[in-house]
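Field log, afternoon session.

UNIT: design team B
ACTIVITY: writing a sequence onto a fixed backbone
BACKBONE:
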């Protein structure tokens, strides 16, 4: 399961979190799936997706925070720890 959330200090016009599932191959990370979640007039959003992966690789999730309020936009990234799936 991939899971992520983000928040702002006050309700904004649009808030979103994208969860990018990546795997490690020969020293490079590759995105294999992206799950997008969006809410309007809110200060909090969470999202989750149950999925299966192929064994024998390290996986991680890169979370992308976005918020838009009027003409002001904000973005940020966060990275999970890598997890080996046997």
């Amino acid at each position: 399961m991939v899971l992520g959330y983000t928040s702002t200090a006050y309700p904004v016009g649009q808030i979103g979190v994208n969860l990018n599932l990546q795997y490690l191959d020969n020293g490079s990370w590759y995105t294999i799936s992206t799950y997008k979640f969006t809410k309007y007039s809110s200060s909090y959003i969470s999202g989750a997706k149950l999925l299966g992966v192929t064994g024998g690789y390290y996986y991680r999730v890169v979370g992308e925070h976005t918020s838009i309020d009027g003409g002001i936009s904000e973005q940020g990234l966060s990275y999970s720890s890598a997890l080996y799936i046997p």
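LOG NOTE: The chain has one domain: 2-85.
NEXT ACTIVITY: expression trials, pending approval
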